[in-house]
Amino acid sequence: MLVRDMRPASLAEQVGRVCALDGAVLDRMRHEALTMPNAWVAEYGEFQSGGWWTLSLFNASGDPADVTIADCEAVPTSLLERMPATRALLDGLGLVYMWVRLARLAPNSFLWEHRDYGELSEREHYRLHIPLQTNRSAGLVLGGAKVHLAAGDLWRLVPTNAHGACNLLGPDRIHLILDCYGNDGFAKLAGRSRLDDGDAVMLPSASDAELDRHVDDAVRLARLGYTETAERSLLRLFYRYALPEGRVYDLLATMHMTLAQPEAARAWQAKKMLMLGTKDEGGRQ
Length: 285
Description:
InterPro entries: Asp/Arg/Pro-Hydrxlase, IPNS-like_sf. Pfam families: Asp_Arg_Hydrox. It comes from Catellatospora chokoriensis. The protein has helices spanning 8-11, 23-35, 84-92, 184-190, 208-223, 227-235, 247-258, 262-276, and strands at residues 15-20, 41-42, 52-59, 75-76, 96-105, 109-114, 125-133, 138-142, 145-147, 153-157, 163-167, 173-181, 200-202. Helix 2 crosses helix 3, helix 5 runs antiparallel to helix 6 (227-235) and helix 5 packs across helix 7. The chain contains eight helices and 13 strands. It is globular, with a radius of gyration of 19 Å.
């Protein structure tokens, strides 16, 4: 499989700044997010290392602890009723919301390589991010690049492309994530998407020999009894190198085959299909 051509021009089609937001408004929104009751919900465990929590502001039920996104006629949750600055900004964007969440990513935490929206209807779905608290070690990784979503702007992400997220050093990264349906309001916003100098850092490529050495190191760790550490060391290569899509999952399968663990190898290939919606060699989805 070839690495896609992911020069900055093509990256801007997948992720970019949409518009600047009022700093005073963002300060109030940040205060609302940081001072709410500590009731964050862990969800999508198979997609993360741990350290990823969310709360809903718009969803199907009005319950902020209902965080598994789905197509719906979204209503404000009880939490949003206590966040007036956030509510005013959301109401003023002119969007039709499917789901809106606060998302917190702790230090040394990862969302593994995946695609979103595969389980939803064929309606047009779009995603916007509003960073409320972040740091330079936090970013999205997609197409062989790491993009830091700086505070102060509204950002667009096309989550049907393979991507992951990381927060290496902390403090917590807190984003407001807006999943919405296509309408004139979104079209006006999306037409202004751009990447500025310094937003994206292209990751280095890795030779087959380098990747083989990482697998060998992981095998040694697993033989010492540190299987989970070995697996995570391979998953984290997605944030270090520009890799072909799904390659980290193939490396995990290779590690387990080397350890004579074919069931574990098949489980990681199944995980690859779950995370990316890819097909196996027999053409099954």
